[in-house]
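Reader question, answered in our methods column.
A reader sent in the components of a multi-part assembly and asked whether the whole thing could be modeled at once rather than chain by chain. We filled in our standard form and ran it. Here is what they sent:
COMPLEX SIZE: three components
ENTRIES:
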Amino acid sequence: MSITKLNETALQSWVDRLIGQHQVYGVKAKGDRFAFGPLDDAAELRLDYDVTILPPKKYFLPQSQELLKFSRRGAYQPVGEPAPFVLFGVHPYDVVAIAQMDEVFSKDNHDRHYMQRREKAVIVACDVQKASPNVFAACMGTATVQEGFDVLLTRIGDDYLADARTPKGEALLQRIEGGADPDPASLARREQLWQDLNRFLMRHELKCAPAKLPGVLDQQEEHPIWKKRAERCYSCGSCNLVCPTCYCFDVQDEVDWDLENGRRVRRWDGCMLAEFALVAGGHNFRATRAARYRHRYYRKGKYLWDRMGQIACVGCGRCVTACTADIANPVEVFNTLLEDR
Amino acid sequence: MSKPTVAIFDFACCEGCQLQIVNLEEELLDLISVVQPVEWREAMSDKADGDFDIAIVEGSITRPEDEDRVREIRKRCKILIALGACATFGGVNKLKNKFTMDDVRKCVYGDAADMPHLSTAPTKSVCEVVQVDYRVEGCPIDAGEFTYIVRCLAMGTDPVIPSYPVCVECKLRENVCRFEYGELCLGPVTRAGCNACCPSAGAWCFGCRGFVDDPNVNAAKDVLEKYGLTIEDLNSRMELFNYGQEPAENVKNG
Amino acid sequence: MAQNLTKSGDIYVPQIATLVRKERLTELETFFEIQLESNQPLGHRPGQFVMVSLPGLGEAPISVSSRPVGNTFELVVRRIGRLTTAMHRMEVGDKLGIRGPFGTDFPVNTFRGQDVLFICGGIGLVPVRGAILEVLANRAAYGHVAILYGTRGPSERLFVDDLARWKAREDVTFLETVDRGSDAWDGNVGVITTLIPKIEIAPERTAVVVCGPPIMYKFVLMELYQQNVPKENIYVSLERRMKCGVGKCGHCQINGLYTCLDGPVFRYADVSDVREAI
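And here is the structure of the entire assembly that came back:
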C-alpha cells in the first residue's frame, strides 16, 4: 500500500473528483459546530473540525432505517441493497467505534442492513487537527488508529499525507492528481504528531487504563454516585444518541394511507429513556433514573467488555457536551469510583 | 368495512389545529379515503345528524355552557380525540386562570363585562371535562402525527405516542443544542412527537406539547444556574403553555 | 439456532405462517395453533420463544407452549398490548409472521434420572408446558415429577384439560392454588410458595423449573433456598422487552446478559448475582 503527499489544492481537486464519481459524505460546518453530510463541493469539507454533533454511525445505522416492506395481507419483502459511498474525514476515535459496532452487527446473528452499508463504504479517516472541548481519546487509546479505515489523511504543515491501508483505499489514492512521494521529514513529523495526539488529546483525564474499568465497576452497583448524579438526569437520551458506540434501536411499523402497504422501520433508541425496559403489561425493569444511569456506565465499562472484550467508550466527549445537566462525563464517573475503591 | 364517520368540533381556540388538517392539501384526499367527515365547520357546510364514530374536539372549555356541549358530543361518539394543546391540557388559554373571572371579563369587555351572554369560567381542557380516548398534542398539532393517529384508528389499533422528551428528536436531527447558544429551551421536559420543529428552525422549544410523564424539573433548576438563567425565566416560559400543570407549580414552590 | 430465519438472508424478515386453530382459554388468554407456510416443524425446544409479527402492528416475543412434535406449534397469548390485542381478533386461516425459534430452552434431557419439580405462576405455565409434556412423554426416564401451579383466581387457570390430566396421573404430584378462591373453588387458596412445603424435595437430585410473574421469583427462590435446593439445579425463565430477538436492539439486557440470546431460560446459579435479573 502506498502513501501520497498532496497539497491543499491537490486535496480539493481529489475530493471534487471523488464527488463527481461517488456519493461522498464529509464533515461540514453546521452553525458553529460540525456535522457529517453529503458533499457537493470539496470547498464544504472541513477537515479542521473538532468533533461532529452526531458520529458517523448514522451512515451505517441510520436514525431511521427500513428493515422490510410488508403488505397487511401477510407478505414481507426484504429491502434492496444500499448504494456505495465514501465517508470522508472520520476521526480515529470514530474509526474505533465503527470497528466495535461491526462486531456487534456481524457476530451471533449477521445484520445485513448494517453490514451491507459497512461493506459498501470506503472510509477516509483523518487525524485530529483541533481538539474538541471534551475529547479524552488519549485516555482511551483511540487518539490515533492504524486500522479500521481505507485511507488515513494527516495534515503536515500545509500538506496532507494520504496513507492507503486497503485495496479499496489504494484505488481511491490512484485518483489523486498532483501528488508526490512522501519525504522522510513529513513521515517523521507524522510519527511525532501521533505521539503528541496520544498524549494530549485529553481534556479530561481518566486516572486508570481503560482495561481496568471492568474491575473499577465491579461490585459498585450500590455506590451513591448513581443515585446522586441521576437526580439531575432528564432521561432525554442525549448521551445515548450522540454516542458512537450506542446502537440500541426501537422497531415500529408504518402504514400507508391505503392501510395495506407499509414498512418496518428501526430507529435509534436509548437505555436512558424512561420506557426502554418497559414490557407490555406495565412492568418497567429499569424504572428509576438511577437504575438507567448506572446501566449506561456499566454497559460502557463492563457489560460489553465481558461480552466482546472492548470498552464501549472511545473518548469522543460528545455525551459530555450533549448533556445539559452536566452529569454524563464518563471520566468523572469512573474516576470517582476509582478514588472510592 | 365501511369508513368510520368523523365530526370535528371547536371550542375556545384559534382553530389553528383544524387549519393544520385543512392544510394537508392533497393528503386530505387520502384522509377522506379512510374516514368519512360528517361535520367539520371549517371545511364543510353539512351538520351531523345523530351519532358518529369519531369526534375530534379542538379548543378549551371556558364557559359553563361549553361543558354541556362537549358532554353532548361525548355521548354521540365512540372515540373522542382531543386536538391540540387547548383541548389536551388547556394550553395558552389556561393563563386566564391566573386571574379572577371578574378581572378577566373587565379586561376583555370593559363596561359591557356584566352583560349576561359574556359569561366565563376558569379554563378547563377537554380532558378535564369528558373522557378522552386519544390526545393529539401541540400548538398547533403536528399534521404528520395527526394523520398517523388517524391511520392507526382506521386500522383498529392504538397509536404509539412518544413518552420521551423533544431532545431525542432534536438529537436525531443533529441540531446544535439551544442551550449552547445560552437559550432556555423546554425540550428536555417536553413530550416529543413534533420532530423538534422549533429547535430545528432555530428557536427554543416552547413546551407546547406538555410535559413528559416524569419531567425532571429539579435538573432544570441546576441547568438554569449553569447558563445564568433564573427560576423566574423558567416559570414564565413554562407558563405560556403549561400554566397549572404540576411541574410548573413544583418549581414555584420548590 | 437461527436456521429457519436466515433462509431469507435477513434476520428481520419473518416466515409466513397460518393460524390453524384458536381457542379462548380465559378472559385474557387465547390459545393459537400455528403452521408455517413451509409446512416444516418450527424446530423449537421447550422454553424457546418466537417473534410474532403482524404487519402494521409490529412484533412481540411469545413463548412456545407446545412440545416439539408435529408440523404445527402452539402459543398462548395474553391480550395486553397493541399486537396481542390484534392477535386476539385473528381468525383461523389468517396469516401471521414468525421469526425464530430464539433463545435458550429448559434442558429437560439433562434432567433424566433426576426428580423434576415445575413451579409455575399464571401465564408462567405457558413456556414451561412444553417441558412438562416432554418430561411426561418420557416419564420413565425421570424420578419423581411434581407440578405446582398457582393463579390469581380459578377463572385464570390455563390449560384446564392438561391440569386435570396431570392431577389424575398417579406418577405425578400435582398441586394447585389460587390467590383468591370462589364459591365453586374447593382447592387450595394462598400464594404458590405455600405449596412448596407440601411436597418432599430431595434437593441434591431435583431439577427445578420456575416461571411466573416478576414478583413470584423472589419468594419462590427464597423457599427453595430454605429447602436447600442448590442454585445450579434451578432454571428460571425471564421476561424482558424485546424488539429484535437476535441480540441487537439492546432492550432485553439484564446487566451484561441478553435475554434473547443467553435466555430466556437461565440457570439460577448464573443469574443469582446479576442484580437486575430477579
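What stands out: The radius of gyration of chain A is 21 Å. Chain A touches chain C through 51 residues (CB under 8 Å).
Send us your own complexes using the same form.
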